[in-house]
């Protein structure tokens, strides 16, 4: 859990320190801009930018029932972030498993990737796809009811 928040908190702390330095040098406008940029980076690289994660076992159960892909991801991964934002609102239609919060999810990813925790790994109908094109993933989603 703390590992997922380490990078976002580092962004916020560094942004705060830089903002304080700008304020002491007499540039409150630059301080505000720096702080806003670093807080936004913190939010983007935090688990907040992703749909709510579930456990690997629950994701597999739900995927078997509704045919939707499972996405194994971790906070701070730029490729996971790229997939999330390129999917847009469709991202909520997938089952997301944070491998840093779920050891079973991490084990699934290692089994699919020869021992490596390479994410995003998308599992569709039991077959893993490592870092797939977001357009391809969008095309694999079942039609909306």
Account of the protein in words:
With 145 residues, the chain is α+β, with helices and mostly antiparallel strands. It has two domains: 2-48; 51-140, Glutaredoxin (3-Layer(aba) Sandwich), CATH 3.40.30.10. It is 54% helix and 11% strand. The chain is built from six helices and four strands. It has a four-stranded mixed sheet. Helix 1 (2-24) packs antiparallel against helix 2 (28-44). The two termini are 35 Å apart. This is Glutaredoxin domain-containing protein. Residues 71-127 form the Glutaredoxin domain. The chain crosses the membrane at residues 29-50.
Task: Output the keywords.
4-stranded mixed β-sheet; transmembrane helix; 145 residues; Glutaredoxin; Glutaredoxin domain-containing protein; transmembrane; alpha+beta
CATH topology of the largest domain: Glutaredoxin
Roughly how many Å apart are the termini?
35 Å
Kindly provide the name of the CATH class of the largest domain. Alpha Beta
Strand fraction = 5-15%
The share of residues in helices is: 40-55%
Quantity of strands, as a count: 4
The unreliable regions are none
Structural class based on helices, strands and sheet pairing: alpha+beta
Shape: elongated
Oligomer: single chain
Q: Name the CATH architecture of the largest domain.
A: 3-Layer(aba) Sandwich
- Spatial strand order of the main sheet: 2-1-3-4
Question: What order do the helices and strands follow?
Answer: HHHEHEHEEH
When the domains are counted, the total is 2
Number of helices: 6
Rg estimate, integer Å: 18 Å
Average per-residue pLDDT, rounded, comes to 90
CATH superfamily of the largest domain: Glutaredoxin
Protein name: Glutaredoxin domain-containing protein
Organism: Nonomuraea cypriaca
Keywords: Membrane, Signal, Transmembrane, Transmembrane helix
Signal peptide: 1-21
């Amino acid at each position: 859990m703390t590992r997922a928040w380490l990078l976002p908190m580092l962004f916020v702390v560094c942004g705060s320190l830089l903002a304080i330095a700008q304020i002491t040098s007499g540039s409150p406008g630059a301080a505000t801009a720096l702080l806003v940029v670093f807080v936004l980076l913190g939010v983007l690289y935090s688990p907040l930018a992703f749909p709510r994660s579930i456990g690997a076992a629950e994701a597999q159960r739900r995927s078997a029932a509704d045919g939707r892909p499972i996405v194994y991801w971790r906070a701070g991964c730029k490729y996971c972030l790229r997939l999330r934002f390129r999917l847009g609102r469709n991202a909520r239609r997938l089952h997301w498993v944070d491998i840093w919060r779920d050891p079973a999810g991490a084990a699934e990813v290692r089994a699919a990737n020869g021992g490596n925790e390479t994410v995003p790994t998308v599992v569709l109908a039991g077959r893993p796809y490592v870092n797939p094109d977001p357009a391809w993933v969008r095309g694999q989603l079942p039609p909306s009811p």
